[in-house]
């Protein structure tokens, strides 16, 4: 051990250790469990799971309207079938005998920027437009944002879907946000921005490009005051339930290490033709 390391350890105080492990989330003592100051007994009796999710990440219990809106978003993203990369990976892992925890962690680990990140990215776009709209108006700010996307050749995250001409999860989520905005629970500004993005994206196209699940939940989470990165975390929390269900189904099937692949779906090899090894 280096001299500097030894000196650092010698100078470490009880306060240093306490500060390192300090948390505002959980208070655990013999016979006592408090989460954000709420006794676990009270939470068990008086709070639902969605209430507890909000409380754990935000610090206080939500009101009924906030719980209701958050729950809708969590339910909406729970699963999208075995063709989704996270679900497919989890099912494949389950056939390898890694156990339920291994299969679930495999699926959750797939939820990165490409598959799982569009909601967070959409929330960032909405936040940027909201800031820009303070100096102009929503329509002008949206037009400027879309112009930049076109200039750089990027797609707008949260819009369009490879399977659904109109994502069936869009309408009930945006309708729920509109209802809460009308009653004053949320501001409704992120909803207005998203709808203006839809309107401008549809201009000049025979087929509209509506919000998908990532965009719709981005509106919900933004209206509820969650930061973009936490929005992705909530999506992961939601989708992990579908990952769990598919992992369990596959584990119960008894299949091991891949299943039969119909011949039209066999991977297409485009490398070298068969060749021998020639070394000089």
Q: Which term fits the overall shape?
A: globular
Please, what is the oligomeric state? single chain
Radius of gyration, in Å, reads 24 Å
| Sheet with the most strands, sense and barrel status | 3 strands, antiparallel
SS-based structural class? mainly alpha
Percentage of helical residues?
55-70%
Total helices: the number is 13
What is the overall pLDDT average? 89
SS strand fraction = under 5%
Q: What is the N-to-C succession of helices and strands? A: HHEEEHHHHHHHHHHH
Unreliable segments of 5+ consecutive residues: none
DSSP E strands, number: 3
Distance between the termini: 50 Å
Strand order of the largest sheet: 1-2-3
Structure explained in plain terms:
This protein is mainly alpha-helical and 280 residues long. The protein is built from 13 helices and three strands, in the order ααβββααααααααααα. A three-stranded antiparallel sheet has the order 1-2-3. A hairpin with a 2-residue loop joins strand 1 and strand 2. Helix 5 packs antiparallel against helix 12. The longest helix has 26 residues. It is globular and about 65 Å long.
